[in-house]
């Protein structure tokens, strides 16, 4: 297995990560995909300034990918916080060997994408719905004073 530095050697990955983290950047998400069906190297597939739904459109049913998303979470304008979500996407039609390698490789990706409130490993885009992710972030934050979404 290649070292994390080899797996994530594309300099644009580190820059995109910093852009998503920065309040000065409009970039709110990034998606990393494998360079080819047989490669273990990751490359920046896309980044954007939209919401998690826009990011989810980049995830194919037959591929594995990693994503990082900045989201605003709060019950009102005064309690709004910026939170980050790390997504490990394993499309429902992803090849068996790719799935097998991902548990090891996701640890290497976390050496680059280090700061996040919630990690979501999924093959179902419904789990990446903005409301579902917001609820996970609120649970991770602790107190939830919003009675409408009090599911715990």
Helix content: 25-40%
Poorly predicted segments: 1-5
Strand order in the sheet with the most strands: 2-1-3-4-5
Largest sheet report: 5 strands, mixed
Named at the architecture level, the CATH assignment is 3-Layer(aba) Sandwich
How far apart are the first and last residues' alpha carbons, in Å?
A: 41 Å
Instruction: Please report the number of helical segments.
Output: 5
CATH class: Alpha Beta
Computed structural class: alpha+beta
Gross morphology? globular
Number of domains: 1
> By CATH's scheme, which homologous superfamily applies?
Severin
GO cellular component, one term: site of polarized growth
Protein name: Actin depolymerizing protein
Keywords: Actin-binding, Cytoplasm, Cytoskeleton
Domain ADF-H: 5-138
How would you sum up this structure in a few lines?
This protein is α+β, with helices and mostly antiparallel strands and 152 residues long. It has helices at 4-7, 11-21, 52-56, 96-109, 130-141, and strands at 29-34, 42-48, 64-73, 81-90, 118-122.
């Amino acid at each position: 297995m290649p070292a994390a530095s080899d797996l994530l050697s594309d300099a644009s990955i580190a820059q995109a990560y910093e852009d998503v983290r920065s309040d000065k950047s409009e970039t709110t998400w990034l998606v990393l995909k494998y360079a080819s069906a047989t490669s273990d190297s990751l490359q920046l597939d896309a980044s954007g300034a939209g919401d998690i739904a826009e990011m989810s459109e980049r995830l194919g049913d037959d591929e594995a990918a990693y994503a990082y998303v900045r989201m605003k979470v709060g019950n009102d304008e005064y309690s709004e916080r910026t939170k980050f979500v790390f997504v490990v996407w394993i499309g429902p039609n992803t090849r068996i060997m790719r799935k097998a390698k991902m548990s090891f490789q996701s640890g290497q990706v976390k050496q680059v994408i280090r700061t996040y409130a919630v990690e979501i490993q999924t093959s179902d885009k419904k789990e990446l719905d903005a409301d579902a992710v917001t609820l996970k972030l609120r649970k991770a934050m602790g107190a939830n004073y919003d009675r409408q979404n009090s599911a715990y």
